[in-house]
Write a structure and sequence with these properties.
Largest sheet: 6 strands, antiparallel
Structural class: alpha+beta
Number of strands: 6
Order of helices and strands: HEEEEEEH
Strand order of the largest sheet: 1-2-3-4-5-6
Number of domains: 1
CATH class: Alpha Beta
Length: 141
């Protein structure tokens, strides 16, 4: 739960660029072209080891629904991270009261074995938790 309107939080997420403002793993990002439409690509510089190394990841927006406040994007390239091939789904919905919203992140990915699946699930839970905390800091002023 975030103490902010769903529309304000959705505006931050659907911008697709600038996610370094709320994602602690991202040090900087940029869109490859102007305009956020399905098919546009985002380049993020990501550090998963506390800033020791930085990797360039490329993500593509695969769906965007303004009415439902949902979007999905696929990680096309993510060297030195476990995220390559990951599909992230994002949903922002109104919570109880005008100034509360719920943000849901889900990820789908393929791994070779149960141990890898368990490890990736834990990594994603931590990553999504960091994003949610970043959105709270950004919007709960």
């Amino acid at each position: 739960m975030i103490n902010a309107t769903a529309e304000n939080v959705w505006t931050s997420l659907k911008a697709f660029g600038g996610n370094e403002k709320f994602n602690p793993l991202v040090t900087s990002s940029r869109l490859e072209r102007e305009g956020v439409v399905v098919g546009c690509k985002r380049v993020c510089y990501v550090s998963v080891d506390g800033g020791k190394t930085e990797s360039e990841t490329i993500e593509v927006l695969t769906s965007l629904n303004e009415d439902d406040r949902t979007m999905a994007y696929r990680v096309l390239s993510a060297p030195n991270t476990p995220f390559e091939g990951l599909v992230n789904n994002v949903n922002v919905r109104q919570g109880e009261g005008a100034d509360r919203c719920i943000v849901e992140f889900t990820g789908s990915f393929e791994v070779e074995d149960e141990k890898s699946k368990s490890e990736m699930t834990k990594i994603l839970q931590n990553a999504y938790g960091g994003i949610l905390n970043g959105l709270k800091k950004m919007h709960e002023t």
